[in-house]
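Note to self: keep these together.
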Amino acid sequence: MTRFGKTVVEGALGRTKPVIRWGLGHALPRAVLLRQARRGDLQGRLVDDAAAGRDLTGLFDEIRAAGPVARTRFGWITTHHTAVREVLSSDDFRTGVLGSDGSALGRLMEWSAGEYLHPVRPPSLLAVNPPEHTRYRKLVTGVFTARAVEQLRGRVQAIADEVLGRIDPAGPVDLVESYCGLLPVTVISEILGVPAADVGKVLSLGAAAAPSLDLGLGWRTFRDVETALAEFDTWLGEHLDHLRRHPGDDLFSRLVAARDDGVGLTEAELKSTAGLVLAAGFETTVNLLGSGIALLTERPDQLAVLRERPELWSNAVEEVLRHDPPVLLTGRVAVRATEVAGVPVPRGAVVTTVLAGANRDPGVFTDPATFNVTREGARNHVSFGAGRHHCLGATLARMEGEIGLRTIFDRFPALALSPGSRRRETRILRGYEYLPATLA
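Structure:
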C-alpha cells in the first residue's frame, strides 16, 4: 500500500472509532434495554422509566418483591439494602465496563478507545481494582482527607454567597444554570488550582463532560462529551506542568506532590483523578442541590422545620440523598462463583445494585417513600456507594449540599418554583436539567 493509501485508511479508521465507541457503549445498550423493557424485563423497565422521568417507587418495590437478588436478561438486580452493601463491599466482585472481559467485544472496545482519559475507564478510580486501586486510593485519600475538605468550608460559603449575589431576584431564573451548577464547578476549579483566567473554560468543560458518567447517550451529546474530555485532557497536561513548577495551596497541587515510599501518581492517574473530580464532582452535586431545592419547595412543612431548627440542615441533606439520590444505580462483575443474600451468582455475572431502590428499603427505613428532614438514620443511605469504591467526594458533597441549600433559602425565603421544571433524560444520573423559579 502506498503512503497515501495508508494515510487514507488510517484516517477512515480514525473517523470510525468514535462511531464504534458510541454504538457499543451507548446506542446498543440503549436499544437492547428498551426492547427488553417492552417485554417486561425489570432492569430494562427501570432504565427506561428513569430516562422518561417516571416515578420509580413502585418498580423498586416490584424488584424487591422478586427476591433479594432478581434475575434479568442482563444479569442480576437488587434493591435490597443488605444485598447492595454486600455486593459493593465484597471481594467477590469488581468494577468493570462493557467488554472488559477480554472477549472479542472487549478487544473491539479497547481498539476503538479514545486517546484521552475517561472517568469510567482505567486508570480512573471508578474503574480500577486491587492491587492498583489500593495504592492509587491511598495516595488520593491522603490528600482529600475529611480535615482538608472541612478547611474549605469558609470558601464554599463565600462562593455560594458570591454566586447568589450575582442573581437578579426581580426576574425569573433557572436555578440549575444560575446556581446549582455554578457553585460546585467553582469549588472544583479552586480544588484543582485553576488560574482565574481559565475558570470559565473549566466551567464549560465541566458541564459538557458530566454526562460521561451516564449510559445511552445520544450521538450529539456523546460527541459533545468526547470533545469536552479531549479539551480538558489537553488543558490538564499544561496545567500539571505549571503546578509542578509553581505549586499552589490547592488540593491538586498537594496530590501532584504526594508520595508513598517515594512513588507518586503517574501522569495518567493524575489526569484521571482530575477528570473524575470535574465530572463526578459537578454532576452529583448539581443534582443534589437541584433535587433538594425541589423537595423543600414542594414540602413547605419540611422547610418550616428547618427554619425552626437549623441544626437539622445536615440531616436534611442526608434525607435528600436518600430520597432522590444523584445516581440511580451502579454495577459489579463477579470474579468467582459466589452467593449474595443466599442467592447463587455465577462467575462473570453482572449484578446491578440499585442505590435509589436500596434507599427505599422498608426493612431499613420506616415509611421510606416519605421525605422527612427529621428522619433518624437518614445517613444509612447508600447514595455514595460502599466498600473500596465509596465516593471519594462524599464529605465535600455533603458540605456543599448543606451550605448550598441553607444559603439559598436563607437569602431568598420567598423562593418558589415556577411551572416547567424538567428532569434530566438520563438513565443513571438523576436530577433536574431545568428548574425555573422566582426568588422574591
